[in-house]
Amino acid sequence: MWKSFKNIAIWTLLYRFRNRVLLVLFLALMLPLVSLIHSDIQTYLELTKRLDLLIYFLVAKWLIITTSLTTMLLLLYRWIGKDKKEPKKSEQNPTKSSSKDEKIDDLLNRSKLRSKKEIYFEK
Predict the structure, then answer these.
(1) What's the rounded Cα separation, in Å, for the pair 106 and 98?
(2) pLDDT at residue 119 in the model
(3) DSSP string spanning 41-102?
């Protein structure tokens, strides 16, 4: 029973946050891909004896890696930070919700409800 509850909880969370999870997974899988591409470029430059260009590719590799890592960390921080937000507006201001209730009661208790077209044509 515990195993099925655990599976249900995991799949529910994955379904609920699937966009964020997919984005973080994409960024995490991008890191080894960038390293693989860089090693291929490095091998090619060694074979063609153009090692002077290697520094540019190294800088580009680390820019991509740091950008991916900071994006992942910011996404995770925002994801975790949403759980700690303040309560909803309806819970903060009970006076506004009561005024909404009064407006709804006023509309329901009217003898005749008119649309905007009817009001316009009466003028």
Answers:
(1) 12
(2) 79
(3) HHHHHHHTT-GGGHHHHHHHHHHHHHHHHHHHHHHHHHHHHGGGPPPPHHHH-HHHHHHHHH
Distance from CA of residue 57 to its chain's centroid? 31
Q: What is the pLDDT of residue 71?
A: 85
Residue 114: which region, alpha, beta or left (left: phi > 0; alpha: psi -120 to 50)? beta
As a whole number of angstroms, the distance between CA 34 and CA 67 comes to 12
Q: Are 31 and 73 in contact (CB under 8 A)?
A: no
Angle at 91 between CA 97 and CA 102, to 5 degrees: 10
- One DSSP character per residue, 29-42 reads HHHHHHHHHHHHHH
Residue 79: per-residue pLDDT: 75
Extract the residue ranges of the chain whose pLDDT is less than 50.
none
CB 73 within 8 A of CB 24: no
- Asked if 61 contacts 34 with a C-beta cutoff of 8 angstroms, the reply is yes
